[in-house]
Amino acid sequence: MLSRRIFNFIRYITRTHVTLAGRGTRNFRIPIALGIFSAAKCDNIFDDSSSADTLEHEFLIKQATTVNVNAATQLLTVTLVAIQDTSERLRDALSKEICLVQQALEWGEEGTPPHHWDQLVAIRGSLSDLKHNLRTLISYMDYAEKLATVAAEISYLSGNVIASDAICERIEHANRTCNIQKQLNHDLQQESLELQQRAIITSPQLEEKLKQDSAKDKSNAKT
Q1: Mostly located where (predicted)?
Q2: Cα(183)–Cα(191) distance, rounded to whole angstroms?
């Protein structure tokens, strides 16, 4: 719109100059008009440059949020895999402990060989380490979830909605998986505890032996 007005103004000045030149008169309005045109053109260049800078900054911000989302997603994935692996090892150790206690209950204190109790002590030492590692990993997951939530919010504010939605789904998946692992671990731990209580009630002579193994387990965990 502005360019058309400037063009019409120049055409008017040109016609005036031609008319006056026919009468023997000089006129310098054309250079003035060209100067006005040049100034208007420079203003448009500055406006275009400012718009380009704004678009470039927005692109860089979106690109940075994408990098943050990818890093947070990777941290969630690695921590989740570690929790799953540690939980499986914990449940495997719990199953072995349950098996050993059941055998001791069947054989009785006198019929249980000494190496059987040694195996039980070793299994409980492994259980103590696995429980400690799992608690540490779960605390890592709490921080990873907070970091991922911040990355999702920043991505949404910058207009990177796709990345924000993707990491939100990943957070929900990680939470569901962690809760499932926690429930499975809790159920098996409860089963092991109930078995030991039943063994003590059924065979009181095993109570002292099981307590000694538990004390050894705690002592090994501290060292």
Answers
A1: mitochondrion
A2: 12
Query: 137: part of which helix (H) or strand (E)?
Result: helix 114-157
Is 138 contained in some domain? yes
Measure the CA–CA gap between 177 and 183, rounded to whole angstroms: 10
Q: Which helix (H) or strand (E) holds 165?
A: helix 161-202
Residue 75 within a domain: yes
How many domains in the chain? 1
Q: For the residues of 60-85, what is the DSSP string, one character each?
A: HHHHHHHHHHHHHHHHHHHHHHHHHH
Q: Which two tokens stand for residue 150?
A: 């911040």
Residue 92: domain span: 62-200
Nearest to 134 by CA among 72, 89, 177, 73: 89
* pLDDT (0 to 100) of residue 22: 45
Structural domain contains residue 44: no
- Return the pLDDT at 78: 97
CA distances 25 to 11, 15, 21, Å, are: 18, 13, 5
> What is the pTM (predicted TM-score) of this model?
0.70
Give, in order, the Cα–Cα distances in Å from 6 to each of 3, 20, 120: 5, 21, 95
| CA 73/CA 170 separation, integer angstroms | 7
Mean pLDDT for each consecutive 10-residue tract of the chain (223 residues)? 53 50 46 46 51 72 90 96 97 95 84 86 93 96 95 93 94 96 96 88 71 51 41
For residue 72 the two structure tokens come to 């947070």
How far is Cα 25 from Cα 211, in angstroms, rounded to an integer? 121
